[in-house]
Design a protein that fits this description.
Length: 319
C-alpha cells in the first residue's frame, strides 16, 4: 500500500496553489478510443471545433497506432486534414513507435506525444516492449522529433499503479522521468491510467518529479475509475502541475488496461477550478453543450455530473 508523503504547507498552514492551469482536451483521442460506436470523421472534426470554441487550445486529436488494434483511430490522417489551423490551437498526436512518428509527421501534427510505460507487463501488452525499451524508443523518436522542430511530450503510463503488477514505486517513475528528460521534451505527463491513485500519492509524485526536474513542465493525466479523479486533480494543482488532461463529458478509457474507465470530465474539472479561483480560459457552458452533443452522438449517457446538476450559483438564481 502507498505510504503517503510529507506535503509542503505554506507558513499560514495552507497548501500552495497554482493560479493558472492549462487544460488539455483528450476526448477526441483517449475519449473515443474505447467506445464501441465509432464516431465518423466529420463528427470528430466537429467535436474538435466545438472544443476550440470553448477556449481549449491544446487538444489530443488522434493516435497513430495500428488500426486493427484500435479501429476508432483508423482515420487519424483524415481528421488532421480537416481540423481548422488557427495558429493558436496545438494539435497533439499520440504515437508509440517510429512508424507512428512518420505518420504523425506526414499528417502535420503540432506536437508529438509519446507513451512510455512504468511496468514491463503493461508495456508488453500495450506496446510489445519492456518498460526500459519504451523509454529507449522514446529517446530515439523524441530526439528526432525535436530536431525536426516538433513540440514533444512524453507520458509515463501506469505512474500510479499497474493493472497487472500492482503498486509502482515512486522512485521508478522518477527515474523514468529523468531518462525521458534527456532528450528535452516540452513536458512530461504522469498518467493514472487505471484510476487507482489518491490525492496524497498524486501530490507527492508530482512534487518528486518537479524536484528531480525543476525546469520541466509537468502534465497530469487522470482517470476516474474509482471516483478519485477530481480529488487527484486538486492535489495535482496544489503540487504545481502545469497541465491537466480531461475529456468533455468524462468519456474515455484504455483498450489495454482492464476496467480503465473514463477520463476526468472537462466540465466538472472547470467548475472545480473556477470555484477555486484557478484560471483556465475555458467556457464552462460551451463545454456542457458539447458534452450533451457527444452524448447524443454516442447514444448513451456520459459520466460527467455538471450537465445534470447545473452550474452553481446560476441554478440557484434560476430556481
Amino acid at each position: 500500500m502507498y505510504a503517503g508523503a510529507d506535503i509542503p504547507f505554506t507558513e499560514n498552514g495552507t497548501l500552495p496553489m497554482k493560479r493558472k492551469v492549462t487544460l488539455v482536451e483528450v476526448g477526441p483521442r483517449d475519449g473515443l478510443q474505447s467506445e464501441p460506436k465509432i464516431m465518423p470523421t466529420e463528427e470528430k472534426v466537429e467535436f474538435i471545433k466545438r472544443v476550440i470554441d470553448a477556449g481549449v487550445t491544446r487538444i489530443e486529436v488522434a493516435s497513430f497506432v495500428n488500426p486493427k488494434r484500435v479501429p476508432q483511430r483508423a482515420d487519424a490522417e483524415a481528421v488532421l486534414s480537416q481540423v481548422p489551423r488557427d495558429g493558436r490551437t496545438t494539435y497533439i498526436g499520440l504515437i508509440l513507435n517510429m512508424k507512428g512518428f512518420e505518420r504523425a509527421r506526414a499528417a502535420k501534427v503540432d506536437e508529438v506525444g509519446y507513451a512510455v510505460v512504468a511496468t514491463d507487463t503493461f508495456a508488453t501488452k500495450n506496446q510489445g516492449m519492456t518498460s526500459a525499451e519504451t523509454v529507449t524508443a522514446w529517446q530515439e523518436v523524441g530526439a528526432l522529433a525535436k530536431n525536426e522542430g516538433f513540440k514533444t511530450s512524453v507520458t509515463i503510463g501506469a505512474s500510479f499503479g499497474c493493472p497487472f503488477e500492482g503498486e509502482v514505486p515512486a522512485d521508478r517513475v522518477v527515474d523514468i522521468a529523468k531518462r525521458c528528460a534527456e532528450v528535452n521534451p516540452d513536458s512530461i505527463a504522469l498518467a493514472d491510467t487505471i484510476g487507482c491513485g489518491d490525492p496524497v500519492h498524486v501530490g507527492d509524485l508530482v512534487n518528486r518529479v518537479k524536484d528531480a526536474l525543476p525546469s520541466m513542465p509537468i502534465r497530469v493525466h487522470l482517470h476516474n475509475t474509482r471516483n478519485t479523479g477530481l480529488a487527484n486533480a486538486y492535489a495535482a494543482v496544489m503540487a504545481g502541475a502545469d497541465f491537466l488532461d480531461a475529456s468533455t463529458g468524462g468519456i474515455g478509457g484504455c483498450p489495454f488496461a482492464p476496467r480503465a474507465t473514463g477520463n476526468i470530465p472537462m466540465e466538472d474539472l472547470v467548475y472545480m477550478l473556477n470555484r477555486m479561483g484557478v484560471e483556465t480560459g475555458v467556457d464552462i457552458n460551451k463545454v456542457i453543450a458539447t458534452a450533451q452533443w457527444v452524448e447524443e452522438r454516442l447514444g448513451k449517457p456520459i459520466p460527467a455530473m455538471l450537465g445534470k446538476a447545473g452550474v452553481f450559483p446560476d441554478v440557484a438564481r434560476a430556481a
